User: Fold these one by one.
Assistant:
Number 1:
Amino acid sequence: MKTVCFKNDLKERLFFAEKNAAKNFNMPVLSGVYLETNKNSLKIISTNLETGFEAAIPAKIYKEGRAVVPVRIMAQLIGALFDEKVTLESVGQNLNISTEKISSLIKGYPAEDFPKLPKIKNPRVFSVSSEKISQGLKWVYNAASNSDLKPEIASVFFYVQNKTPLKLVATDSFRLAEKTLDHTVKNAESFILPIKSAAEIIRLLENKEEDIQISFNDNQINFSGKDFNFISRLIEGVFPSYESIIPKKFSADALIKKDQLIDALRSASIFSGHLNEITINIVPEDGLMEIKTRSGEVGEHASRLDAKITGEKVSLNFNYRYLLDGLQNINHSEALLRFSGENRPLLIQHPGDSSSFYLVMPMKNI
């Protein structure tokens, strides 16, 4: 194999390849990136057997061939080069990487040992714009569980119903986020995507404007763009039935400046205890939201913020981190907080967009 390509193209794809490679002492080839010349392009593949990444970049091919080398080493080297063009040439199972003034040889693995990415059999297929899927995943991402003990909630639920808009949902049992996309999917079924795979899709779709084809069966899924494929396993199991906990009635609404509320929560966090607890008091007659917290070791703190409030007085305790995660997703100068009563969930929304919401369960009195 001998090929010449642009450094920045290679660097960008190696970033994603490294994310999807494995540290597997029993199969060291999984820590590698598979490189193969194909007509006027260089194919780049990595996998950890749970996810797989494939991309192609433009390249001038002098000799066809393939190679597998440790992706971390190659990514570090390409990132440190200052020349625009890079020459890749296989030497046995090793790879020589050179520019006009630099030459390096990376020891590789037998290319025939690298596993092939799986082909999805009998897939259900639909397409959606990269912007819609990216925005939807970003909205729900923080609400998913970080623990692998319950895989069905360390995930994003793609709720597909024929003739109704596609919904993305995530929950860790303490908060829940839902985003309804302006997109209808026909002849498909709901599925559960691992949260780590959702994070990769968010990174892959950054600054892309194209339609993404989604192909899946009961076990695997493939997200395909113009120059990449991302394959992931799917979660087996049942996503929690969540719709019954969404409040239908509200005892108080508060419209408040988002950045002021974020700053107030961050200030209160300095004085919160190990449970990250803060208290929110809603005082409708004064048009105030009060945020209070105290710690036996640090002291106590209170903030009072002006807000447009309708409804009854409310006093609830929350984990401030959960509130911050929900507020930071809102692309608006104001946030709408909807309280559903004592020991009932708080619903956070963009004030002019009912297609998404973020639900936070209150903490018990401390």
Number 2:
Amino acid sequence: MEDGTAFEGQAISSDGESAGEVVFNTAMTGYQEILTDPSYAGQIVVMTYPLIGNYGVNDEDAESGHIYVKGFVVKEFCRHHSNYRATRSLIDYLQENKILAIEGVDTRALTRHLRVRGAMKAVISTKDFDPQSLERKLRALPSMEGSDWVKEVTVKKKYVWNASGDGGQGTGVRKEQATKYKVAAIDCGIKRNILRILESLGCEVHVFPAGAGVQDINAIHPDGLFISNGPGDPAAVTSVIETVRQCVGKLPIFGICLGHQILGLALGGKTYKLKFGHHGANHPVKDLLGNRIGITSQNHGFCVDMGSLSAADVEMVDMNLNDKTLEGMRHKKFPVLSFQHHPEAAPGPRDAQYLFRYFIEMMEHAKQKKS
């Protein structure tokens, strides 16, 4: 690690070397969704739960078409998985995708170190054991702050989502109504379960690359704009911030995770880096509008500074109960709403999935005003 701390383990997949920002995730299950979440691009993930891989993997639970983590660190990998849906073991899955993974690490000590010192750069190596050499490699690695990782994960060209043609089965998401709304989604690293849920609520989702401009979005005459989750520093994704800024007040807008942060920046606010971020499936969040508490799935290292936003224009609607950080906000004048946590889960609890209906209501209201 960049502070000179070293942990030893045994490689169970590919040999080689990989570097990135190391973070810990407190989820007990959902490792396949975590591995395939584009929001983890550029990061080495440490699982705090001691035994990982007991239910194997399958082709239906991936949240994207790739594994995006730079490395995977666990206490122990399960060698004998058991699940009727599994098609192969987690170890085989990591080997197929050439992901450097290690076990036998004291993940409790590593997690404690990250909580005390904060997230930092690290390198996993099976060939270089010289501390000075590894330190030089880490110095050359760009920091997560200021890095635009969205350009590494965004789709290359626009497409229309179709779950039936993309293996979206077995997720518990069923079609609730006929297609009624056309949604333009800016892909900053979008998860498939977001697309499945929007489709189930009657949305035809047109997924745009992060570089899409206002003219591209307006060309499909959307009923609403969605800004997705994604990796890296939101302040570095300047093109998306500008596009969203131009859409405020003209379209209903809904953002999740990085999309929430980008909205905060587009509304004139600021973001800052959290000490070790929120990564897991057990984070309590209070809905200030409904006066209820939900357990949420989270994956972010940056946060919107509520104090940097105009109180006359923006209000907090969700609050993290662990550290009181901003988890949700809405505009007081325009149909603009966003959340830092993941209401689509995958992995994690579905306590907050109702939040998608707010977006539907905003679009419905806008359609009625037009008519």
Number 3:
Amino acid sequence: MRSSNDKGNVAELAIATEAAKLGLSVLKPLTEHERYDLVLGIGGRLLRVQCKWAALRQEVIVVRLAGSYHSPTRGYVSKTYGADEVDAIAAYCHDLHKCFLLPIAEFAGRRSVHLRLGQARNNQRAALHFAARYEFPGAVAQLAERFAGSEEARGSNPLSSIGESLPPPTETIGAHQFRNRFGFYLEQAARGTEILISNRGRPCARLVPAVLNPAALGADE
């Protein structure tokens, strides 16, 4: 059985290899204790990427997003990732030999995410994350297309500004679910996700973030 370090090393190498196959620049930090493992050049921009091992559980890919470290005074501490630390989470599923790219704007603060390979048995679509949307070739191509031709892509690109340029994610939910979990979706919108609310399958309202850059949240606190 592989240890956590072994899994992390395999995932990082697999993600770097897949990125290289797609013609991306792959950079590795020379210093330790960074919150990201790799820097990938996509569409003329540099993205700080944390690499994760993903497990397959029937029709669901489980990605543990939180990292942990040992503190002499607090013991083992678990910490999630924010947009000020990384720009994306890349996950490698060894069972499928596939890589996935998760923009941090959509998953900041999450401890885990489940990527579905197929439809839910009850045909639910709201609040689900389908693996096909985040699979490496397509997800990378979408980011590259959005970045292409922008002023940032033609000029300088400090890593600290990357998070501002990631395209905002969109999530579609039913009106009943929105009423029951209003606080949760309000928080998701505050982090940068656009929430499309449907009633009987028809779009009826949209909740959009007041601040598009999640890293800017709390700036006035």
Number 4:
Amino acid sequence: MIQILRFAFIGLALLGASAMGWAADASFPAATWGEPLTVEASGWSREGLQAADKIASSLGTQAYLVVHRGALVHGYGDIARPLNVYSVRKSLLDVLFGVYVDRGVIDLAKSLEELGIDDEGGLSQAERKATVRQLLQARSGVYHEAAYETREAKAERPARGSHAPGEHWYYNNWDFNTLGGIFERRTGKTVFEALRDDLAGPLQFEDFRYPEHTENAFERSSRYPAYVMKLSARDLARVGLLMARDGRWRDRQIVPASWVAESTTAYSTEPEGWQGYGYLWWVPQRAWPFWSRSPGSLFFAWGNGGQYIVVDRQRDLVIVHQVDRSRLFTRNVTPGALSDLLARILRASPER
């Protein structure tokens, strides 16, 4: 059944722009987003967006913005300030994987054993059978300690050897960090160099500075660090727009449309059933029932505390939300907590 759904979504993506919400001659931002469109030019409701701002204030939002049809229609807070994006980094790595899978540099069918991947204390023979694709799906079955795990993740991590590769979904920092190591071995670039060369450059990030806004977070428990990134809301919006446009940026196909579709197909559903998981991207299931959608149109990146890139390909809509976790007493904005803000934004849209 998973395979049938996978090919159905990929086939939908390959129908082209008309199958979703953007036109082949759609606009893209210049080197700077500039000022948001007026409500007269955008067709959005001023009162609706002001109501959304009040909700954002109650959530402790640092910044959020709305991009519709390639144009910035609303910004709240400091959308130019680079902040730690936490686990949104994983979705950005997925985009970079798509670039190099397309070039034939990375083979998703390769196992850890074939790639020479090991870790502190050694991996078992069963664990070494996990493939790159299973790591992207968070289904490796390798429950080794990992850098940058939250306290909750450490407490919930299954016992080593409790599940075979591909058998069980677990949101696993070991998978995600090790993917960074695999990427660097196969491409000859660090994740941060690839971010600079293959995304920040072509998409014209405004606020990203290399290497200032990057850091490898090492822990003694594992050889593979977390690749920590700081990015602004308006730079994250460019990544969201790239995904909304099936991997295309102006006249250049940065990442294949088939990779976008494959990455945003749900291969697993979290235990509570609110969202599914693709390749390092989340896919709403029971979450956000107010949001009408077609198959394959809605997905999001999600980072600790309230970092989001929400992409609606059907409406050609991108919403980015950030919380500054360096401040004391910030609220954890879960997808459920974010829902009131998203619902209000949609009500302000000309395409409800």
